[in-house]
Specification:
alpha+beta, Beta-Lactamase, Alpha-Beta Plaits, 4 domains, six-stranded antiparallel beta sheet, 29 strands, elongated, binds ligand C2E, binds calcium ion
Length: 748
């Protein structure tokens, strides 16, 4: 070996030696910075400077890959011109983008000895050349999972290729870079996690699978008043022991199977109080401790639950009596039936009782609302004492109560319950010194005998209850098929009635009323006729349905329109005819309806544009029940009608609550003695005396009297001698269609 060779060899050895020692020094510096938690920028800066010091003439840089892994961002490059760094910042990576862009994209080292000629730099070379950079070697920084974290580059101001040592150096730098970046990312995550842990708005407890406490976050301490303060374990069986058993068992079972469980439990606080907890428990493997751990996420939902409970209570209970309300009652029946049907249980049975206090409106009106409420509470209390165990008692609405009895029960038992209710409710109630014996009408329906549809069951009980009301109240009644038939027919007729006006299915018949002296027709009663499928339906059947459904309002209006049109027509032709039109009490029930009634005539008067319309040709037949309605308003209304000249007649006189006093006070013109009295005349002197009395009293009050339903000569003879002014009845004429009536008038 010559001396020159020796020198070169020994310089090389020397280089290798210094390289090794400074490498160790670099490792220890960077590691101590990493371990002491120095900011990443500082560590990278120090790394760059150390490499630059190791190989004089090097300008090193670290670029970091962006979160989206598509671009490179400045990490540390203190010796490169600022202008250059700025231009590089954010450059997109790619297999042919300079040295670093390509190293990051390919994960391979890229050595560019001459930037000027290298194809990777063709598009960008202006930048480095301007900064005096001619060569650039770049090493990808790769983490422990093989992911590219960035690049470490070494630049030179002359064209240069790396020696073996240079390559070792750049590799080492990239490794240190990787260590620093990875570690700082982990630290960052750890800090974030611990912040989340302490700021988490839910309680979080981490335990080992033997329930040793590993971590408890501050929120858990707040929720439980630091339940675990003096404990080293968190035993779910103890902490949640107050929970619903089913939930607790399900949770523990899932725990042993290592499954995640979520649900509601009841947890303890340190002072022994409890809270409603929403719990999610997850099992995970802790590789550090080589064991299974549990994380308990616990939220206090007590407030939420108690608000829900209140809302639930209010939604399902009646505020006055605290009984269940209608909705809760129906839900319970639906649930019961549904659950039994779903599980295909045979012998499913239940009964529904609907109960309504008789004449409650009257009692309420005379006692005042507050005392009425008192009575409802008293009745509720009495019913509660009788209601069988497992049954559900509810206040359905107003004065209506419901009793749902699930399960088999005999008819005899049901009768016994109903009788007890009737007896108990009828016991004396004293309210404000007033003695009341309230009574109750009870309708009963049964599943499955009457129906297996809940709605029908309720409906049927209600039909049976109304049947009791019709038959005199204060009793009970089981639903039967005849009621159903009636109800179906009523529903059918009501539906057909609603179409009848538009279908022109109505017709007016006319029954002449004759003068007692001359037997001449002096007016006619207008009677409504309705044909359905070619058959006449009796007004006795359809008028009550029209009244109940409110359809009487448009129907009544239609009848008056027709009657006024006939009066107008005949009057203008010089053959005037007087008509009596029936008006239902329902047509005056509310203030609004009364207004509508008056408006009808006001509109008529305005449209007619005749000031002298002969309103005296129109009689309105009202019934006694109207006079029992709110006195003042009805009186004003009748006065207004009479002011126009319309006559008011009291129909069916004697059948209602006939109080003679209102005949004195009420503005009426005539009465019609009900046909029931006329037809009993021949039955004996008492009936005769009654007709006599009505007629003479009416005469005394200067009311004209019509006898209705005169069918025989004997009846006619009797009324003739008893101050009756006019006669209506089959003896003279039956109701007839309009043309027949006109022909009859023409023949006279
Ligand atoms: P109402 O107002 O008492 O009508 C008299 C009823 O007695 C009519 O029955 C008439 O046909 C019947 N009648 C008349 N003379 C005799 C007789 O000598 N013997 C017998 N047995 N009956 C006689 P209709 O037409 O069946 O009407 C029954 C009820 O229907 C009426 O009783 C009335 O309350 C109601 N109604 C009829 N048309 C109307 C109407 O247009 N509007 C209203 N609101 N109700 C009406
Ligand atoms: Ca009548
Ligand atoms: Ca009548």
């Amino acid at each position: 070996m010559d001396s020159a060779q020796y020198i070169s060899k020994s310089t090389e050895n020397f280089d290798v030696l210094t390289h090794r020692s400074s490498s160790i020094e670099r490792y220890s510096t960077i590691l101590s910075m990493v371990l002491s938690g120095s900011p990443l920028r500082e560590i990278l800066h120090s790394l760059v400077l150390s490499i630059e010091a190791q190989k004089i003439g090097t300008k090193a840089s670290v670029l970091l890959i962006s979160n989206d892994k598509k671009r490179l961002l400045n990490g540390a490059a203190p010796s490169l011109p600022e202008e250059y760094n700025q231009a590089i910042h954010g450059v997109e990576i790619g297999p042919e983008v300079g040295s670093c862009g390509a190293a990051a994209a390919t994960g391979k080292r890229i050595i560019v000895e001459d930037i000027e000629t290298h194809p990777n730099w063709a598009a960008y070379k202006e930048l480095p050349l301007k900064a005096g950079l001619k060569a650039c070697w770049s090493e990808p920084i790769i983490d422990s999972h093989g992911e590219v974290l960035g690049t470490f580059a070494m630049y030179y101001d002359t064209k240069k290729s790396p020696s073996d040592l240079d390559l070792e150096l750049i590799q080492e730098a990239a490794k240190l870079g990787s260590l620093a970046i990875e570690r700082s990312q982990a630290l960052h995550l750890q800090r974030l996690t611990s912040r989340i842990f302490s700021k988490l708005p839910m309680g979080l407890v981490i335990t080992t699978d033997t329930h040793s406490l590993l971590q408890v976050n501050p929120m858990f301490k707040t929720i439980t008043r630091d339940f675990t303060a003096d404990k080293s374990v968190f035993e779910p069986e103890v902490f949640f022991e107050k929970s619903d058993e089913k939930s607790l068992v399900s949770m523990l079972k899932n725990l042993t199977r290592g499954k995640t469980w979520q649900g509601e439990l009841i947890g303890y606080k340190r002072n022994g109080q409890t809270f409603d907890a929403e719990v999610t428990v997850t099992t995970f493997r802790d590789y550090h401790g080589e064991q299974n751990c549990f994380s308990w996420l616990i939220t206090d939902i007590s407030e939420h639950k108690s608000a829900n409970k209140l809302i639930h209570y209010q939604a399902n209970n009646d505020a006055l009596t605290s009984l269940a309300n209608r909705r809760c009652f129906l839900d319970k029946i639906y649930d019961y039936v549904w659950q039994h049907e779903r599980t295909k249980q045979q012998n499913i049975a239940c009964s529904v009782l609907l109960m309504d206090i008789d004449n409650f409106k009257l009692i309420n009106d005379s006692l005042g609302n507050e005392n009425g409420d008192g009575l409802l509470k008293e009745v509720a209390d009495r019913l509660t004492l009788i209601a069988p165990r497992n049954s559900l008692l509810a206040r359905m609405a107003g004065d209506e109560f419901g009793l749902f009895i699930p399960g088999q029960i005999t008819v005899q038992e049901l009768i016994s319950i109903a009788k007890q209710i009737n007896l108990s409710v009828a016991e004396l109630v004293v309210i404000e010194g007033l003695h009341i014996h309230p009574t109750m009408s009870i309708g009963i329906s049964r599943y499955p005998e009457d129906s297996t549809i809940v709605e029908s069951l309720i409906n049927f009980a209600s039909q049976a209850m109304y049947d009791v009301k019709l038959k005199g109240r204060n009793s009970y009644q089981f639903f039967n098929k005849a009621m159903q038939k009636n109800a179906e027919r009523t529903a059918y007729l009501q539906m057909e009635l609603s179409k009848a006006i538009n279908d022109e299915a109505f017709e007016l018949y006319f029954q002449p009323i004759v003068s007692i002296h001359s037997s001449k027709i002096e007016k006619a009663e207008v009677l409504l006729r309705w044909q359905l499928n070619g058959e006449f339906i009796s007004p006795e059947e359809f008028i009550p349905i029209a009244e109940q459904s409110g359809l009487i309002i448009p129907i009544g209006k239609w009848i008056r329109q027709q009657a006024l049109a006939i009066i107008t027509e005949r009057w203008q032709q010089g053959h005037p005819i007087a008509l009596a039109v029936n008006v239902s009490t329902c047509e005056f029930l509310t203030d609004d309806l009364q207004k509508q009634f008056i408006c009808f005539f006001e509109d008529f008067i305005r449209d007619q544009a005749m000031s002298d319309f002969p309103f005296d040709l129109l009689t309105l037949e009202i019934t006694e029940s109207l006079m029992m309605e709110q006195h003042q308003n009805v009186e004003t209304l009748l006065n207004q009608l009479r002011h126009w000249g319309i006559k008011i007649s009291v129909d069916d006189f004697g059948t209602g609550y006939s109080s003679l006093s209102y005949l004195v006070n009420f503005p009426v013109d005539q009465i019609k003695i009900d046909k029931a009295f006329i037809q009993k005349i021949e039955q004996g002197p008492r009936h005769k005396a009654l007709v006599e009395a009505i007629a003479s009293m009416s005469n005394a009050l200067e009311l004209s009297v019509t006898a209705e339903g005169v069918e025989t000569q004997a009846q006619l003879d009797f009324v003739k001698n008893n101050h009756v002014d006019a006669i209506q009845g089959y003896f003279f004429y039956r109701p007839m269609p309009k043309q027949a009536f006109y022909d009859l008038l023409a023949s006279q």
